[in-house]
Structure formats: C-alpha cells, structure tokens
Amino acid sequence: MKVRSAAFLLGLAVAILPAFAGDPTLPRPKAGKVEILPLSEVKPGMKATAWTVFQGTEPEPVPIEIMGLMKNAWGPKQDIILAKMGGKAIRTNVAGGMSGSPVYYNGKLMGAVALRLSTFSPDAICGITPIELMLEINDFDRSKPENSRTPEKVVARNQGQVAVPSEMVGQAVGAGMPMMVPIDTPLTFSGFGESTLQEFGPMFRQMGIAVAQGGAGTTTHSSKPVAGWEHSLNPGESVAGVLVDGDMSVTGLGTVTYNDGKKVLAFGHPFFNLGPVSMPMTKGEVLMTLASSYQPNKMANATDVVGALHQDRHSGIEGVLGAESEMIPVSVKVRSLDDKEAVVREKSLHFNVFVQQKWTPYLMMLTLYNSVSELNDFRDEATYRLKGTVQMGSNQNLSLSNMQANGELPMPAPMALAGWFGDKFNRLYLNNVATPDVKSVNVTVDLLPDRRVTTVESAWVADSDVRPGEEVPVKVFLRPYRGDMIERDFKVKIPDGLSRGDHRIVLSDADTANRMINIAGSANRFIDVANTVSLINQERTNTKLYVSLVKTSPTAYYDDKTMPSLPSSVLNVMQSGLAANRSLITSPETASEQMALPFDSVVTGSYSLRIHVK
Questions:
Q1: What is the pLDDT confidence band of residue 593, given thresholds at 50, 70 and 90?
Q2: Contacting residues for 139 by C-beta, under 8 A, at least 6 apart
Q3: Is 463 domain-assigned?
Q4: Could you tell me if 444 and 478 lie in one domain?
Q5: Are residues 258 and 199 in the same domain?
Q6: Domain residues for 392?
C-alpha cells in the first residue's frame, strides 16, 4: 500500500512538473511600451511568468503561481503580491540578483520579483512589487529619502573621522518567524583582496548587501556609454550600478523590469535608497546562480556602460539609457623602498569612484586600503608614507601628507592611513553649504622597511631668563622606536615686543598643534568648501616637530581663520555680533609657531619649557 502511494505521488509530481516548468518557446520580452496589469486584477491561482538570467546574458522564463496579496506589506496602501516560483528557481531558490525580474500575465506586466523569505525557506517563495508602484518613481523628484542606506548609519563616527571597519558591529541575526525581506543585492568586488573584504564586508551586509568576490569588472574605465547602448537592457536582462570601476571595481547587480526605449526600471526595491543619484549603469553577465536555502546568489560581472542611474527609491531604481554620469578619477602609485629609500618595485592603479555625499568618502577609504594592504612586501615592521593632491574645480587644490607605522595603533597601518585619507573627503562632502567639485585624486604611498616612530622625551633651554630680541639655545631629545637617542639643537628668537613675565616654549607633534583649529572647523556647521580646503591645507603633518612660543593672550578661531593676541574688547564685540548658529572658538593662550623640525618618521608627544622675560 505504501509502495502504491509513493508511486502515485511520484507520478502526480511528474505530471505537474512540465506544466510548472518554464516554457522555452515563450517570446522574450523586448524594450518598448507594454500593457500593465493593474493590482486590482491580480487574483490567487494565476499562472504567470517571470524572466531572469541564470547564466550568461539571455533571460529565461520562470513559471510563477500567484498565492495572494499581502496588504500594506510595503507601506500604507502598498501591497505586495505573494507568489511561488517554479522551474529552475525550485533548485536555486529566490537568488540575489533576481531583484527586478519582470512578471507577466497574459502578456501584461504585473510587477517585479523583489522580496524573499528571510532565511532557510525550502520553497521559492517571493514577493512581487506591483509595476504601478515602480512607475511612481519620478525622475524629476530631487528629494532625498530619510532612510537611505549609507555607511555612517552603520558605523558610529568618532570625533568627526571616518570610523574603521574593524570596529563595526556584526550583523544581528533575527529570531522568530521568517519575514519577507528585499532580495539581497549582490555587490561584486573585483580586484579586491580577501583581507579587504573581511574588514569591510560586515558594513555592507548590515545594509542588506551581499558581498561577493568577482573576476573582471566593467570592460571600460569610462562612464561614457558604449556604442549600441540604444538596444541594451531589455526586460529580464541583468543590470548593474557602478560604485567603483577600473583596476578595481565594485558593482551591484539586479534585473531589468521595464524599458520604454529610454528609461529603465529595475530591482523592485531600493539599491541604497539614496534618492536622486548619478551612477554609471551597465549591462551584466551572470557566471552562475548559486543554489542555497540560506543565501542563494548570482555570481556575475558588470560589462559595458550603457547609461546612468538617476533615481534610487523605495520601490526600485530608474536609469536613463545613453546618459553619462561623472566619477572621480583616482590614481594611486604604491612603491616599495629599501632601507636607503631606493625603489625596489612599484605598481600604479587607476580607477574611478562614484560621486555621492555619504558614499564617496567611504569608497576612497576602501580603495586606498585595498591598494596598500595586498602588497607582497607587507610586514609587521613597516611604515607607510602618503603624499597626494586632490584637484578641485575651484582651482583650490588639497595637499595631503601623512605617515603611519605598524604597532603604534590598535589597528594595522594601512587601515589607519585609509581612515585618515577617508576623513579628508568626509570633511569635504559633509559641509552644509555646497557640494565639492573634485576633479581628480593623485596619491603616492611609499612602503618603508622599518617602523619609523620618534617620541619626544625631554627638552632643555640654556637659560630660562631671557630678554626680548635675543636668540635662546634649545635642545630637544627624542626616542626612536629602535636605536640611539636623537638630539636636536636649535635657537628660538624671543620677539622684540614680547611682554615681561612668564611664557612657554612648546615642542609638540601635529595632533597637538592641530587641535584648536580642528575644533574650530568642526564647530561651525556652515563652513563652505573653500574654507574646508583651507583648513585641511593648514593642518600640520605628523612627520615634523613644531616649536611654538606661547603667551597668555587670547586667540580666536573662526572658520579657517586664526586671530592671535586679540584684546578683550575686540573679542567681546566679535562674540556679540555672531549669529546663534555660528561659532567663535577661543583659547586663553596664543601660540606663535617659530619653526618645524622635519623627521622622516612619525613624531609623537610634546614638551613644554617655561621661560621668564625680563
């Protein structure tokens, strides 16, 4: 009896399977106007067809059975169509990269496959975003969604700096009933090392982005659409948004839902929900679709640029074929030096970075870290020296200089250097006045074979009783990481007009010398791009020891201006005349920088010498 029952069930399954399998004779959907199936006409039991790419570039039909409507599941008066996928999707499940797969019923477009059960679903259950919701995306809407997915919402910023990925909290795993969630958008990293993906992967996963290592990225290093873009991105084909391209690339893959010959709709859910964007849009090639009940994904490459994404919204993304988006060209030269600073080997990398207020700083950090962390010369006893220029459209360039050594921080030197680098762009892009016009970035990073760190230990002045106009001999002692004590002699000239009484000669590192001007810059929420560039260019580099004469008279810091030795009456007038939303930072002392002693190492620490002017 059991044998007969099993045979009956097997026969029934075989009989049903052909009816539920994708019909390869169905005509592939093409670009152009299509009839819409209103949500009001969607009924349980309907047999529909989705189109998606499992391998290569040709979409295949996938049978879908409509199970019903989930009322208000996508928001107030925003229903989701619940369905079950058949055909190849029974094996692969609802995979990352299927987002946007168009669903048709009797030739009418119903919507896009956009959601799946959270984890461990034995059935290919999907949620379909109605096409009516996707058509609401308005190319002329310039508003920015409040719940956009950007790095700073995942990573707490620490004192205005870009936080490092090693401090990120891992993705929380929900418990309880399975939920319908947006299908993961596979973010393919090409040209990135394993250590980079380990460090930065948790942040992307917390935003619902599946991280995957890929092969070749986009076939062009330009955001200009290739010839023949007019005939690309038919419904069901793969489409990708580009965050980085060139010698390393970062691309997010989905599926085209609708193409009217010019505008393209895809995903059926947000990419990052950034609102108005300008991001290169490419075709895609699927290498394989990885089957899994936990995290099925398409493994794919972005190929030719054919347009630009202009909207990233709650119910999908919208792009325009033939449109071009601006990216920031970045050149990074990494050199390995011997102990005499002769170049042993070098590599040059060229790539372009997506322009967006919240994403550009993080992508700069990501790509610099990847550029320097995968060297064969990487070692524990090493120092990284960076020099670079950021060219701005306003003819006001940004000069960058920094050095980081392994072992001095609770993180590797490449991460510390990348965090410092990303913070400069964070300050440029997060001002509330204007968006910076960054034309290009050129950076050289030297890998030095030893740990170069020098710490200030003590200092000595020949005579603490001094007179105005005379030069005072000073000696400073510094301790290197290894080796003998370093001794430097120099003279500090006492200004002719310095008042009688007690003053100080302060020998300090860059962090100490930069503290007040950085506080002043961060306190003003309305500082513009030009002032931000000026402030960054005024910052002292960490490879010098700064000698300052400090006297007890107030200094005011306003925007990028330093106003030393202000009389109290002038200071009172300035403070009373400021608007409530503008800040004037004051210090009870005035530090007049006398000189900067250069070292080819990271200088840390400070020391103060008291002098008495007769």
A1: confident
A2: 263, 310, 311, 318, 320
A3: yes
A4: no
A5: yes
A6: 329-448
Residue identified by tokens 């899994």 is: 292
Q: Residue 223 and residue 308: Cα distance in Å, rounded?
A: 8
Tokens of 307: 């347009």
Round to whole Å and give the CA distance between 315 and 131: 9
Res 297 pLDDT > 70:
yes
Residue 82 lies in a domain: yes
Residue 452 has a CB neighbour count (10 Å cut-off) of 24
pLDDT in tens, 179-209: 788 888 888 898 998 888 888 888 777 766 7
pLDDT tens readout for residues 501-558: 888 999 999 998 888 666 666 666 667 888 888 889 989 999 999 999 887 766 666 5
Q: Report pLDDT for 285.
A: 93
- Identify whether residues 359 and 312 lie together within a single domain: no
* Cα dihedral 6, 7, 9, 13 in deg (nearest 10): 130
190 vs 366: CA distance, rounded Å: 13
Residue pair 271/255 in contact by the 8 Å Cβ criterion: no
- Same domain? 319 vs 209: yes
- The pTM assigned to this predicted structure is 0.83
CA-based torsion, 233, 237, 243, 248: positive or negative: negative
3-state secondary structure of 120: coil
Element (H, E) at 350: strand 343-354
Does residue 128 sit in helix, strand or coil? strand
Round to whole Å and give the CA distance between 551 and 532: 28
Please determine, for residue 585, whether its predicted confidence score (pLDDT) is greater than 80.
no
CATH classification of the domain holding 388: 3.10.20
Q: Is residue 172 part of a domain?
A: no
Does 569 score more than 50 pLDDT? yes
